[in-house]
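Worked Example 4.2. Consider the chain below.
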Amino acid sequence: MELETIVRDFKSKVCEQLRLVSEGEDRFRVFTPFLFEDGDHLAIVLKREHDRWLLSDEGHTYMHLTYDLDEKDLRKGTRQKIITNALAAFSVSDRNGELIVPIAGDRYGDALYSFIQALLKIADVSYLSRERVRSTFLDDFREFIEKNIPSQRRAFDWHDMERDPEGYYQVDCRIQQLNGDALFVYALPTDDKVRDATIGLLQYEKWGIPNRGVGIFENQEDINRKVLARFSDVCEKQFSNLVTNRDRLSRYLGESGTVQ
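Applying the procedure from the previous section yields the following structure tokens:
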């Protein structure tokens, strides 16, 4: 099929605001108006490999997602399900991180339409609804603690049974230190959760229960400044997010005498 015919088929099946730019022999960059949430364009290349034509993102989609997410998080939980379902639904293959779809016969337009739909669906992992993001964050937090802290030294959803039998001042994870003290670790996705953690730490201080407060935010930049300031007054150590602070958090827990 000649280039003009391919472009015409692309436009008829996808949209008129589309163009191809040659980048060498049997290789074309496909420019479309479709964007990631942050405004970057989808990366799509039409190229010939051996005796077939295919569309490829050349690894750009996953790379783009890892600007905000840890690559490991794309391979598990809700995010993995979204990606797997998108690939299956639109017959796209994952070739070691490069997403591709071969052109069947002369169905260039159909292939491009399916490829764009798959890329946009996969991009959904970067802006899940707030509830689903929160669920993923809390799952990631729990998984990290389980991986790094021996089970005999950790207690999730802990509260003081004597002073707080109803669990009004629950700690997301209490970690016993080797010196006998405890880390009170809070997972903090929202302003409300930060307020609750502040109240809890103040109450434990009032009761005279020894602890070192640790706050792990989903994204500290999203927290109201006044709420964050009050929390900072009572919390010993904070991590702005879990994704980019895994190594620092592991080292901190190790230095605190909690990792065996």
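The first strand starts at residue 19 and ends at 22. The chain has a mean pLDDT of 88. Compare this with Example 4.1 before moving on.
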